[in-house]
Amino acid sequence: MQNTFLIEAFQTPSEVADTLTPYFFSLKRDPYVDSDVRFRSYARFTLSSSGGISRLAHAPFMQSSEVNRVVGDVLREFAPMSDDMIQTPAFQHLLKSFASATGIEKEGAQVDVHQIRVTCSVNDTSAPAPEGIHQDGFRFVGIFCVQRKNIAGGFTQIFTSPVDQHPHLNTVLEPNQFIILDDARYYHHISETLSSQSGEEGIRDVFVFTA
Ligand SMILES: [Fe+2]
């Protein structure tokens, strides 16, 4: 049975982010945003009744324009996620944590995972969520932070409506922090980022899980 929590946040063992950080350097540029600061990969998984998790065939990703006003109703062909990374105990730990926290552990349940790097400079802000305050169009959304390097901003914000002046929750996800929310109940946004170090690139690496 699915769980009914609204927001759940927890910390994973510290080696999880350390193990997964190197896999963000080979990400391909996201061709669906008009900038060269966003890099990503994508994979789909399914759960078996025995608790196993297997990868589904790679497929394009699409969101309705009702939830994504920037690239809604567009079939997006993201690069497939690294199989080597998926096999790591660290990544498997994240998949299992998301499945058990949400209670979606029934046979055939599907989990999508997006691996996303957004970079920024001292002079130009970057928008980790170009669509603004939004829902992803799923039952649950999880965000796991792998790395924040030289980053100012990038607040994870949760709202009760798309026109709220103030977020219900406004926090910075640090590496190894996982937040999962009821996507049907809440809207979310990630505020803009700027590099906090002159002459240095800012990097924010996350995984987004949906089910
Ligand atoms: Fe989102």
Automatic annotation (TrEMBL):
Keyword Oxidoreductase: yes
Domain of life (superkingdom): Bacteria
Database matches in InterPro entries: 2OG-Fe_dioxygenase
Gene3D superfamilies: q2cbj1_9rhob like domain
One GO molecular-function entry: dioxygenase activity
Record keywords: Dioxygenase, Oxidoreductase
Any matching Pfam family: 2OG-Fe_Oxy_2
Protein name: 2OG-Fe dioxygenase family protein
Species classification: Bacteria, Pseudomonadati, Pseudomonadota, Gammaproteobacteria, Vibrionales
